[in-house]
Amino acid sequence: MSSASSSNQASKSKAKANKGELAWWQLSLLGIGCTIGTGYFLGSGIGIKIAGPSMVASFLIAAAGTYIVFHLLAKMTGEDPQEGSFCYYAGKAYGKWAGFGSGWNYWGSKILIMGSQLTALGLMTQFWFPKVPLWIFAAVYAVLAIAVVLLGTKGFDKVENILAVTKTAAIFMFIILAAAALFGWIHGGSDARPGWPDGWQSFAPGGYRGFWSSLIYAFYAYGGIETIGLMSMQLKKKEEASKAGSVMLIGLTVIYVISIGLVTFMVAHNAISEKESPFVTALKSYDLAFFPHVFNAAIVTAGFSTMTASLFAVTNLLVTLAKDCDAPKLFERKLKFRELPLPSLALATAGIAASIVTALLLPGKIYAYITTAAGIMQMYNWGFIIVSAIKVLQLKATDKTFAAIGLALLLAAVIGVVLESDIRWGFFISLALSGIIAVVTLVMQKRIWNKQHTKKQA
């Protein structure tokens, strides 16, 4: 094929890709289904335990910060859609080191998120089999997820959509049953039900420090919003990206606030455990023998779906990093059979194995530690998106103000973790991982990229 015909074909492909097929409301619904995960179903319980009813306010604050990140990423994607997305924008804004660091930080955060999801799936399965060690369930789900990736299931997207509906339906089922219980239509319930808070002490039993520390778990429940930001390039009208994001976040926030508010009304914050979904705990004392089993099964099914999707994402991300020379070329290789990037999958599997070993060594605190570390790494990623947008885009004064507020909220969420001793180890885990990435980035800068730059100039 001649270079001219190749160029014409590339232009046609780009025009077709830029045309998009999604309406704004479809992206909104897709975002709601993809964002809700085990971080909300189980991780929110850690925040409720620390902050009590003030966790509702944490979700409102996190919604504001999440919108700012989505808004800025959607603007960058709309102006310059790229396969590398926020990694590309970081490199465009600050150089090779930023794109490299952003990409590997995102890969590390995804590995932690998968570890958190595996642990959550194990904890929820222990609801039925309490005597089976946590690490066994984590290993079983990991093997099943790897098997799904190896099969290369063509209908995986359709299955994901069905399971997204399952997750949303589970939340609405809880809201309806909780409302029926409050109206007295369902027998049972605890006499020690806390009810609506009547002062600061009942609203925030953990005080200002507990409320502050809970922010990270509210932000974590909105995790995945950056992936939806990437999909804004598939909109029919790119200018409707902010509209889609606004509606999506309003929908998520309403669902989150109502359901978390009902939990804190029905059960005391100190009765919540990170080993059980707070929604199951809230309705456990009512005459609903079916609910814990049905709800738990829905969460396990949907959580496995999210974890498998994360494995797909992290495997393909490493291939993209290898193409951009930000990872060894080995990880770009694919098998002829099903075009699977086996080396990339193998590295992701090693990361998952580390999570399983950790679950074996620290069965009591592992979920809180990994979830906290994953939430902080997510804040690092979102911080990269904001500072990249400040440099890449010609922002108006309003957007610059929003960007500053967004950075302040992300920083507040990270600092809040340090204040709470029970979850502080999560901060150190994230710091260690980011430190390793920073050291590798520095070595690459001095020994490889500087030499390449000098050769280009010569």
UniProtKB/TrEMBL annotation:
<keyword id="KW-0472">Membrane</keyword>
<feature type="transmembrane region" description="Helical">
    <location>
        <begin position="206"/>
        <end position="225"/>
    </location>
</feature>
<feature type="transmembrane region" description="Helical">
    <location>
        <begin position="340"/>
        <end position="360"/>
    </location>
</feature>
<feature type="transmembrane region" description="Helical">
    <location>
        <begin position="402"/>
        <end position="419"/>
    </location>
</feature>
<feature type="transmembrane region" description="Helical">
    <location>
        <begin position="164"/>
        <end position="186"/>
    </location>
</feature>
<dbReference type="GO" id="GO:0055085">
    <property type="term" value="P:transmembrane transport"/>
</dbReference>
<dbReference type="Pfam" id="PF00324">
    <property type="entry name" value="AA_permease"/>
</dbReference>
<keyword id="KW-0029">Amino-acid transport</keyword>
<keyword id="KW-0812">Transmembrane</keyword>
<feature type="transmembrane region" description="Helical">
    <location>
        <begin position="288"/>
        <end position="319"/>
    </location>
</feature>
<feature type="transmembrane region" description="Helical">
    <location>
        <begin position="22"/>
        <end position="43"/>
    </location>
</feature>
<keyword id="KW-1133">Transmembrane helix</keyword>
<dbReference type="InterPro" id="IPR004841">
    <property type="entry name" value="AA-permease/SLC12A_dom"/>
</dbReference>
<protein>
    <submittedName>
        <fullName>L-asparagine transporter-like permease</fullName>
    </submittedName>
</protein>
<dbReference type="GO" id="GO:0016020">
    <property type="term" value="C:membrane"/>
</dbReference>
<feature type="transmembrane region" description="Helical">
    <location>
        <begin position="135"/>
        <end position="152"/>
    </location>
</feature>
<keyword id="KW-0813">Transport</keyword>
<feature type="domain" description="Amino acid permease/ SLC12A">
    <location>
        <begin position="28"/>
        <end position="400"/>
    </location>
</feature>
<feature type="transmembrane region" description="Helical">
    <location>
        <begin position="366"/>
        <end position="390"/>
    </location>
</feature>
<feature type="transmembrane region" description="Helical">
    <location>
        <begin position="55"/>
        <end position="74"/>
    </location>
</feature>
<feature type="transmembrane region" description="Helical">
    <location>
        <begin position="425"/>
        <end position="444"/>
    </location>
</feature>
<dbReference type="GO" id="GO:0006865">
    <property type="term" value="P:amino acid transport"/>
</dbReference>
<feature type="transmembrane region" description="Helical">
    <location>
        <begin position="246"/>
        <end position="268"/>
    </location>
</feature>
